[in-house]
Write the structure tokens for this entry.
Amino acid sequence: MLSVQGLVAGYSAAAVVDGISVAVSAGEMVTLVGANGAGKSTLLKAIAGAIPVRAGLVSIDGEDVTNVPAHRRVGKGIVLVPEGRMLFAGMSVDENLTLGAHLRTGPAARRAVAEDRERVFGLFPVLAERRRQAAGTLSGGEQQMLAIGRAMMSAPRVLLLDEPSLGLAPKVIGEIFSALDVLRDSGLGMVLVEQDARLALRHACRGYVVRTGRVALEGPAEELLDNDDVRLIYLGAWHETKG
Amino acid sequence: MENAELLQLAIAGLKNGSIYALLALGFTIVYAATNVINFAQGEFFMLGGMFAVFAFKTLGLPLIAAVPLAVVAVTGVGVLFEVLAIRPRRDGDQMSLVIITVGGSLVLSSLARHLFGSDALPLPEFTPGPSLAFAGAAIERQTLWIWGLVLIAVVALTMLYSRTRLGRAMRACMQNREAARLMGIDTGRVVMISFALAAMLGALAGVAVTPLTSTRFDIGAGIAVKGFAAAILGGLGNPIAAVAGGLLLGLIEQAVIPFSSTLKDVVAIVVLLSVLFVRPQGLFIRERKEKT
């Protein structure tokens, strides 16, 4: 469904993403694993159109969207849940969700949007309790739920998740990832960038190990979990392997 | 001081204050969309009066046509200003954009001087007639027009922000432009509309006040300082705070007049500096806007 081929992108002269190819199909979660600064976040931003692409191709269902600006890429079914959540802090939970559905206008879409809102509340019941509350007053976990819910309101086909577990307690991370599992099983494609590589590989179908802007290794998630290099470098398994 | 005298000062304060409020709204709307202080805001005010005089005197249109026409034309100038001066540098740093607005302000006032001359140009009152008596004080008819127009503008703007999809998109940009873009909001369009609205409000203030004060090519800078001070006093980035700041500045100015009428125009600067030193987020904003 989503296909990224030979993508080159970066803010400065040196390309942070230097020719990465990634693919994800409907109902599949793939994850990008790698050290800080390896280019994972930059790749997600480039796929979402938030930063310009210097070379390569981004396409969804065969349609080339490489040069489609960010605000129109949402309409193509690609939505980014950005690192740090980037909520509209002074606006209510409800308004944040409404803004997620900004492009879905017209009487026909209205009912679908209302249904999606209920679906988000079903996925994250705490958001329904706090629907009139300003997003900035939510706890970190609730904010991450809202960021995901807001993205879901655009009726995406591919969800790009940038560090959804950052700074959250294990219990909340569990809730969020089981919600992601539900979404994946409902047919959503997902590209997950996650500092906790073990967590990511446990939930993902496939993984890509990104090193200095390139894919160093790719394969089924279980294989990567068992791969000695991956364990050593990214899973903090230094002591296990050494001992 | 007699009560009637106090009332008279309050009326004058609220009259000027509502003009400042419209300009402060212009500053705030553009700032919310771009984080830029648009120093050309005062020129929209000047052009509003100029265009109205031109349509009325030169084209011979009746006031009822000349006034709306002037507001619409200046709104167009606002759009042009954004497209020609701001858009090419939109991703540039704030400072260069602010300097562009200062340059744009000079260009607009020079053009106005070239087109309309350097004399003060009068415009008749919308509904001429004797002042109305109110509790021993007098209210000029044009003042009622000013209040009415300001009220309509503020109500319309409030509706726009709270009830419409566009308004919601504008508020989203105010809070987090990057996130707004990721939600599918065309932030470039929001910037353009913000300049159009700011120009419209500036022009509205200009046409409403010109019957009382006349207009001249060089009045933009002076009124911009007042509007900017009002916006800072209330709290930049919040429309309601901008209106409150405008009215309050108008009243403070009048409060100074009994002591020294020559100091009136210094008030705005003193207020501006005091707020920036003591309470930079403005009087009516609880916390400083978070930048993400």
Remarks:
- The two ends of chain B are 51 Å apart (CA to CA).
- The interface with chain A takes residues 165, 168-169, 171-172, 175-176, 178-187, 290, 292 of chain B (CB under 8 Å).
